[in-house]
Amino acid sequence: MSESELAINGGPPAKRKPFPDWPVYDDRELAAVTGVIKSRQWWRGNGSNVSEFEREFATYHGAGHALAVANGTQALELALMGMDIGRGDEVIVPASTFISTATAVLCVNAVPVLVDVDPETYCLDPKKVEAAITPRTRAILPVHMAGHLADMDELLDIARRHGLVILQDAAHAQGAEWKGRRIGALPANAIFSFQAFKLMTAGEGGLITSDDAEFIERCFLYGNCGRPKTDRTYQHTLLGSNCRMSELHASVLRVQLTRLDEQIERRRRNAVLLDRLLGEVPGLVPQGRDPRVTRNPHYMYMFRYDDAAFDGLPRQQLVDMLIAEGIPAFIAYLAIHRTPVFRDRTFGPRWRADDPLLPDYSHVSCPVAEDISDHVVWLHHRVLLGDEADVVELVDAIKKIRLHTQRVFA
Question: What pTM does this model have?
Answer without folding.
Answer: 0.96
